[in-house]
Amino acid sequence: MKKNAGNANKMTAARLICLAALCLTLWHARSEAGEIQPMVRLKDIATVEGIRENQLVGMGLVVGLQGTGDKGQMAMQMMSNMSQQFGVTVDPKQIRSKNAAVVTVTCQLSPFLLPGQNTDVVVSAIGDAKSLEGGVLIQTPLKAANGQVYAVAQGPLTLGGWSDSGSASTVKKNAITVGRIPNGAIVEQGVEMDFSGDGVINLLLRQSDFTTAGRVARAINERFGDVARAIDSRRVEVYLPRNYASSPSAFVASIEGISIRPDTVARVVVNERTGTIVMGGNVRIGNVSVAHGNLMVQVRENPQVSQPGAFSPGNTAVTPQTDITAREERPELVELPATSTVGDLTEAMNAVGASPRDLIAVLQAMDQAGALHGELIIQ
Length: 379
Description:
Blueprint: H1 2-32, E1 40-41, E2 46-48, E3 54-63, H2 73-85, E4 100-109, E5 118-125, E6 136-143, E7 149-156, E8 158-159, E9 162-165, E10 170-173, E11 178-187, E12 200-205, H3 210-224, E13 228-230, E14 235-239, H4 248-256, E15 259-260, E16 267-271, E17 276-279, E18 284-285, E19 288-292, E20 295-301, E21 304-306, E22 317-319, E23 322-328, E24 332-336, E25 340-341, H5 342-351, H6 356-369, E26 372-373, E27 375-378
Parallel strand pairs: 16-27
Antiparallel strand pairs: 1-15, 2-12, 3-4, 3-6, 4-5, 5-11, 6-7, 7-11, 8-11, 9-10, 12-14, 13-14, 16-17, 18-25, 18-26, 19-24, 20-23, 21-22
């Protein structure tokens, strides 16, 4: 059985090595052709200034729970306040119910939503409720940062989990104190979106880059004439052509499909917690030699029990015994020419059996030595 498992592991490792070699080959071929970044649509890398979502929030009460609601005074006070709105005055101290929970209700008000349309809401418990399963949200006004009510939410909750318990154990899947109400909010008033004031449309890049902004302006000018210019690394200003002066939405739709090849800063992102390394294809390495070795120190505790002879006055005692073994492996030397990429470094380090964490240490040292021509981001 052990031999078969070892053979299976070797086959899996061989497949992974072949896949990595294929990826590196394709990566080098693309790099040599100057196509590190793919062609993408303009709508995938930029947004239109003035068209945005708005966050709404409210505090409400979920009822109909099966004894899994809040135990605190907040829920009792809210139930008392709600009863007063319907002409029933109840002292909060006299309410003893575990079938209600105080919740926060949030939603994203999408652009161009009009009064009467619906949107989804997320309901989250803020008290000590154990579960919102089977609950119904009572009508809750949703406000924006300016304090105005833009939507009203109400309806039964949909949870993505469940919980079952017995006298000695509990089984739970996913979060049961957070739920959604699909189309649970009705828009009461919309938000005006002015994205073509004075006949000018501003395109905002998701990733700030001067080269990409210049390419966007150049691509728009090639199709519609001299109407676009890059203001900075984030914003491209576009003037409405005369034939689109009365229909700016149609002009935005016509430029969204323009293909752009974006450019990015050379970056290497390292996550030391998980040992993950993500390297951009445009990262270059200077002429450098790398020597990396491992020092392994192993400490073992082998306590010995000292047992006195029969009928002797001695006592049984535990004698500690520590074995320390230190071993330093022979360092491997890797030399790379000045035209190397991070892919070449990865291939060379894999050839000498280095682990991802070894590669992280090497990248950090190369960055300090000035041989890594790119931005090193450590998370």
